[in-house]
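pasting for the record
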Amino acid sequence: MIATVGAASGFVESTLAQIYKTHKPGGGFLGGPAYYIKNKLGSAFFAGVFAVLISVTYGLIFNSVQANTMAQSIKTTFNIDPVWTGIFVALLTAAVILGGMTRIAKVVGVMVPFMAGAYLLLAIVVTILHINLVPEAIWNIVISAFGFKAVGGAAIGIALMTGIRRGLFSNEAGMGAVPNAAASADASHPVKQGLIQALGVYFDTLIVCTASAMLILLYPGWNESGQTGINLVQYTVSSEFGSWINLFITVVVLFFAFSSIIGNYFYGEMNMPFISKKPAALPIFRACVIAMVFIGSVAGLSLVWDLADLFMALLAIVNLVAIALLGKYAFAALKDYQDQKKRGILEPTFDPSCLPDQVGIYCWPLEPAKTEPAQEKAAPAKAKKAHAKGKAK
């Protein structure tokens, strides 16, 4: 259910990020909620609020969750104290993020395909081995959420809250993080990137998360283990294949969690110009990221998740209000895209004249990069000229 809602909000936010992106100094594009809040809604204050929230949520809180997962997995496999894991991961994070954005992109690019493919392959093997138990596992999921036990008292509310929180954490739709990456794509039409994000929500939530569910629920007696989090996954899988599989799971988790740490840092750094343009701001943020990686490694599981849920909600509120106000522009772009497809155009291109107005649009139609200050001064005149052009057409 959250995937369906998330696909819609993910489409809108990523399409808006493409429409209201700006040129990046040195080439490329920058964008995201802070950019369309400022460029289109004209609110520098709320753009700054969002920038602070995403930097704290992803750069600090979510990174502590990932570090905690790594530390717990390593403790289960090698019995290494989380303190030592925290020190190692913090130093590794420092080495990568201090190497610059090019290095970050290369590290993440190598890690993500490996960890995703390996994890899904394991889930497919487990599912095939217990294919006869899959209908029962799916039934247990449904009946646990909507059965008689769930509807009693506050249980149904707890089930819904858990589903919403974990669903949002997995696909990130509506929180405004993915649009920061979506804006950097060199697309010929904003809707293309929006549709890709909508598909990504379904893939992540319905396939990847279901894979995790099967790894756990297809093992008889999983709920009697007393384990939680990554330890529960390792317990069920090792019971199936032997203790050696814990090493495999740990390696996959390391790739997954560390690539997430780097990606989360990237979201924060992209929004730093909205927080402070002082030279010391970025080094301070980097130091906080490194510190939270260590703190998350040694903190309790419930603490890091409670913090993640709180900041995730605050972040989503700001972004969802923004996309509710700007949604008509994303759907106007969708109508233009669909009209071009109906006319037989295989690769639709975007002309901002299809929108009700062009305020805050800097990069469309595609043209040579300009500096952002010049864009800001020229924006009203450019918007009027584009609007008049649209009327003439």
